[in-house]
Amino acid sequence: MRTDKPLLKVHDLHVAYGKATVVHGISLEVRNGEFTVMLGRNGAGKSTTLHAISGLIPKKAGRVEFDGRDLTNATPRDIVRAGIVQVLEGHRVFTMLTVEDNLLIGTYARSPGGDRAKLARIYELFPELKEKRDDHASRLSGGQQQILAVAQGVIGEPRLLILDEPSAGLAPMVIDRILSVASELCKGGMAILLVEQLVEKALRHAGYCYLVETGRIAAAGTPREIQASDVLHQTYLGGHAAAGT
Ligand SMILES: Nc1ncnc2c1ncn2[C@@H]1O[C@H](COP(=O)(O)OP(=O)(O)OP(=O)(O)O)[C@@H](O)[C@H]1O
Ligand SMILES: [Mg+2]
User: Fold this and answer.
1) Is-above-0.90 flag for pTM?
2) pLDDT digits (tens, 9 = 90+) for 26-66
3) How far is the CA of 185 from the centre of ligand 1 (A)?
4) Cα(first)–Cα(last) distance of the chain, in Å?
5) CATH superfamily of 8-243
């Protein structure tokens, strides 16, 4: 059972694109230092939910609270300042800039000129980026660019880091690297909300999971509870995602 007070609390969220409502009353919670995973098939409404939390798209109804503060109608900038940073799905880095300049961009929300003091910790966490600090990001592989995108989120020192399918299209080793860094960050007290298609891998790292189906939470629980639930098997029966390990 989850006992601590939630850091993020989403209550009865509804989101629509024009007349089409695609999120129909999602409620979820993320706790400090907890690795929370959102699973669900393509088009289930995962990214839409995340964008609404981050203030990137309007909410039709519902409430978002962060550390006891109502952020339902806050601007994306205020949401970042409150401590929520989202690494967008398929996030691309600035390929014409160096790795280090890409990282400094991640500090701009709080330090407009860039905060170099934060680089040392990031290079400790991501030694592969330290080696390439002066290279243009265009010279990185796809996997390294995605690691840079995650690092760009981490350097802002969010209290909640939201990662939308950071593993999409990447080799298994890179995926493992991203998930293990995320686990490490959680152990250091950061909360993570991760969307992932690779069910087995995600469940291995998760502390708590939500399964989203057509804009609703179809199941929620610990990885063990989710694995035992029929809903997971029904959702992915015959789907490619179940095979992802
Ligand atoms: N900008 C948009 N305008 C209109 N409809 C959209 C828009 N973005 C997403 N949708 C629709 O909303 C629904 C939910 O999409 P969403 O991107 O949230 O799904 P998802 O769970 O993130 O899927 P995926 O795993 O493919 O990333 C889908 O039916 C999608 O077609
Ligand atoms: Mg998505």
Assistant:
1) yes
2) 999 999 999 999 999 999 999 999 999 999 999 999 999 99
3) 28
4) 26
5) P-loop containing nucleotide triphosphate hydrolases (3.40.50.300)
